[in-house]
Specification:
The protein is built from 12 helices and 10 strands. The protein is of the alpha/beta class and about 350 residues long. It has one domain: P-loop containing nucleotide triphosphate hydrolases (Rossmann fold, 3-Layer(aba) Sandwich). The chain is globular, with a radius of gyration of 20 Å.
């Protein structure tokens, strides 16, 4: 049985990108005078950086504690999810239609149809071996389907020339499951790597971008450390900084909390939320962190046996009566999913 949550026709109307400071003001987390002081303190910054660093500035001025900022961002995000649940009419950034893939003679993707809503966070969940990571590789064009179409803003990636496909990939960043940092490079050079390899940005501008990216993931002062000197959570934060450094339109995150303890897992989820609230970047997260991940995404796709079992707003998936989805969410051994 396949359950796809009904979604209205997509609207071409974009959600206004209200600056984060204004959203914190409207939510009552800060007052007008505090926002004015923070903006004045940032008057010498590039306009792009003002929105990126407003939270840090409010904390540094004593108008918010770090904990209160995290709470405010989580509350704003939760309200977004409720709004999306009521009206999920968002145009897709990426669409898969009839995507099939066999690997070593085994059907991994069996006619996948799904949409990734623009400017939102989508989580792809399901049991191990259900096709999640293979789907992620198809989204960015690292794998091409045996059959079906993959469209990015209406353009079929499958039909693109190698040069055009490479150009399309530059709109993405991918955070690999293990972080995939270069052991021989320090934190600074790991984060700078995409800029040096894919752009002609001068070195002084690279330095400014790298230091800002490290500040955004709370790793200021760690730029000369090497990966083997960092904890697992810190490695994930470096990998996230590297994924953000090129200001991608879409970020794909493959198990960003795998292997982390519950406290660090929660910290990474807060960091992803913080990143999204500042950048409004479309995100796709492959995750086994169920039910925790439901707090950190607008939209959920459930893959099972190579098919989309369900797709829709997070709250709708949580309320699903599908026995497969109920078993997966609860983690029960007994049920239609046989693991023993």
């Amino acid at each position: 049985m396949t359950t796809v949550v009904a979604t209205p026709e997509f609207s071409c109307t974009e959600t206004p990108r209200i600056p984060l400071g204004q959203r914190l003001l409207a939510s009552g987390c800060i007052n007008a005078q505090q926002l004015a002081e923070a903006l004045a303190a940032q008057s010498s910054l590039d306009p792009e950086e003002i929105n990126h660093l407003i939270g840090r500035t409010l904390v540094s001025l004593g108008h918010l504690t770090q904990g209160r900022l995290r709470t405010c961002l989580a509350e704003l995000f939760a309200e977004e999810c409720r709004v999306y649940h009521a009206n999920p009419a968002v145009r897709p950034s990426l669409s898969l239609r009839g995507v099939e893939k066999r690997l070593d003679g085994r059907v991994v993707l069996d006619g996948i149809d799904l949409d990734i809503p623009h400017g939102h966070i989508t989580a792809i969940i399901g049991i191990s071996g259900g096709g999640k990571s293979v789907t992620l590789k198809h989204l960015v064009g690292l794998m091409l389907p045996d059959r079906g179409t993959i469209t990015l803003d209406g353009k079929d990636l499958v039909a693109l020339s190698p040069q055009a496909l490479q150009a399309a990939r530059r709109r993405f960043s991918l955070l690999f499951q293990g972080g995939a940092l270069f052991d021989s490079l320090d934190v600074y050079d790991n984060v700078a790597f995409p800029l040096r390899e894919t752009t002609e940005v001068p070195e002084d501008e690279i330095k400014r971008k790298v230091m800002r990216a490290l500040e955004e993931v709370n790793l200021a002062g760690m730029e000369h450390k090497f990966p083997d000197e960092l904890s697992g959570g810190m490695n994930k934060r470096v990998a996230l900084a590297r994924a953000l450094i090129t200001s991608p339109e879409i970020i794909l995150l493959d198990e960003p909390t795998a292997g982390l303890d519950p406290i660090i897992e929660n910290a990474i989820h807060h960091l992803i939320c913080d990143t999204f609230m500042r950048t409004r970047t479309t995100m796709v997260i492959i995750s086994h962190a169920v039910p925790a991940i439901f707090k950190w995404c607008h939209h959920v796709v459930v893959l099972h046996q190579g098919k989309v079992r369900a797709s829709g707003p997070t709250l709708a998936i949580q309320e699903s009566t599908d026995p497969v989805i109920r078993q997966f969410i609860s983690g029960d051994v007994d049920g239609p999913i046989h693991v023993l």
